[in-house]
Amino acid sequence: MKEISKYINEQKDNMITSLIEIINIPSVQGEPSAGAPYGVEVRRALDYAIKLGDRLGLKTFSKDGYYGWIEIGKGKPLGAILVHLDVVPAGENWIHPPFKGSIFNGKIFGRGTEDNKGPAIASIFALASIQNSDIQLRGRLRIILGTNEETGWGGVEYYKKYDEIPDYGFTPDAQFPLIYAEKEVIRVNFTTEFKSDVILSINGGSAVNMVPDKAKAVLKANDNISEIEKVIKRLECKAKLSKNNEEITLTTYGTSAHASRPENGINAITSLIKILNNFIPEHDQLYKFISFYNKKINDETNGISLGIDSEDFSGKLTFNPGIIEISEEELKLYVDIRSPVTIDPDSVIEKIKSNTPNYITSTGNELRIAMMESGKLAELLVEGLDKTKVVGDIYKGIVTQVNTGLNAAFVDIGLEKAAFLPLSEVKDKFVDFGDQPVDNHLKLEKGQEIFIQITKSPLGKKGPRATTYTSIPGRYIVFMPGRRIVGISRKIKNRDEKTRLRKIGNNLKTDKYGMIMRTEAKNQDADHLSEDFNHLKEIWIEIEKNSKTKPAPCLLHKEEEPVLKIIRDLFTSSIDEVVTDSKDVLKKINVYISRKKGLNNLKSKIKLYKDEIPIFEAFGIENEIAKLFTPVIKLQSGAYIIIEETEALISIDVNSGKASTNSSPEEMAFKTNQEAAREIARQLRLRNTGGLVVIDFIDMQQQDHKKTIKSILDRELSKDKANFITSQISDFGLLEMTRKRTGPSILKNLQKNCPLCNSSGYLFSDHFISSSLQRWLRNISEKIMSKTIQIRCSKELSLFLSTHLDRFFHKLSKSENISVEVVHDKNLFGDKIQVWCINDNQNITNWEGGILPKKDPAH
Question: Which of the chain's termini has less CB crowding within 10 Å, N or C?
Answer without folding.
Answer: N
